[in-house]
Amino acid sequence: MVFAVQQDRLQGDRLPPLRQRQGAARAPRSGFWRLIRWCAVAALAIVLAPYAIAPFYRSIDPVSTPMLWRWATGQRVQRIVVPLNRIAPALPLTVILAEDAGFCRNRGIDPGAIREALQQSDDDLADSRGASTVTQQVAKNLFLWPGHSVVRKVLELPLALWLNLVLPKRRVIEIYLNIAEWGPNGEFGAEAGSRWAFGIPARDLSPVQAAELTAILPNPIERSARRPSLLIRRLAALYVRRAATYPGHDACVYAH
């Protein structure tokens, strides 16, 4: 009897070290999965944050990621935010006709244009061009990054749908005109672009000047409205003709 009790005590003495070893083995695994969960939560928060922020842009003037990048790297940023009624009507009309002719009809994205662009780029979503609506460009400039990548496109499409849902068309084009890059040295927005190119405020732009500003939008670093090349002049002439032919393409901008 005494021997049995002593044997039980010996076995009992051996058990704690075994349990401690098992706990020690589980601890690193538990810490690893905890880290994974925190990373997943952080990634989800980053992805969902734009959806929570976007409705506030009805009344708050946002800044774009290119502006933030230039500020972070110590580069110049010049922007004067102006309401749409202080921008010559020729500019939003010309931009819509050049960048997104279906702006007033689409819901933030243009499936037909996306399909056509994919066919032209061999079904490569990252390299597809000409399919981005004005709303998609606003989504990209406010919340994403430049360049071509499938990840960015996948994030951009639902964001554009959401912006179209929570912001009126007038506000979308107003934001776009105030965050687009319109100069080679950090000139953002129509007011800064107009003053840099022509020395006048955006409300005084002529149809030709508005068309020349629109023509440089794809690449304001290499293209210039201040010293327009033959290409810019030809594009501007095309946009002026379009604006004269389709004057009602910006009707949703002024609808109440």
Describe the fold and architecture.
The chain folds into two domains: 17-60; 63-254, Biosynthetic peptidoglycan transglycosylase-like (Penicillin binding protein transpeptidase fold). 61% of the residues lie in helices and 2% in strands. The chain is built from eleven helices and two strands, in the order ααβαααααβαααα. It has helices at residues 2-53, 65-72, 90-99, 111-120, 134-143, 150-166, 169-179, 189-198, 207-215, 230-245, 251-254, and strands at 78-79, 187-188. The chain has a two-stranded parallel sheet with strand order 1-2. Helix 3 (90-99) packs parallel to helix 9.
Secondary structure: elements and pairs:
Layout: H1 2-53, H2 65-72, E1 78-79, H3 90-99, H4 111-120, H5 134-143, H6 150-166, H7 169-179, E2 187-188, H8 189-198, H9 207-215, H10 230-245, H11 251-254
Parallel strand pairs: 1-2
Please report the number of helical segments.
11
| Proportion of residues in helical segments | 55-70%
Count of the domains: 2
Query: Pairing-aware structural class of the strands and helices?
Result: mainly alpha
CATH topology name of the largest domain: Penicillin binding protein transpeptidase fold
Instruction: Give the N-terminus to C-terminus distance in angstroms.
Output: 96 Å
The top-level CATH class of the largest domain is Mainly Alpha
Rounded Rg: 28 Å
The rough form would be described as globular
CATH architecture of the largest domain: Orthogonal Bundle
Features:
256 residues, mainly alpha, Penicillin binding protein transpeptidase fold, 2 domains, two-stranded parallel sheet, 11 helices, 61% helix, 2% strand, disordered N terminus
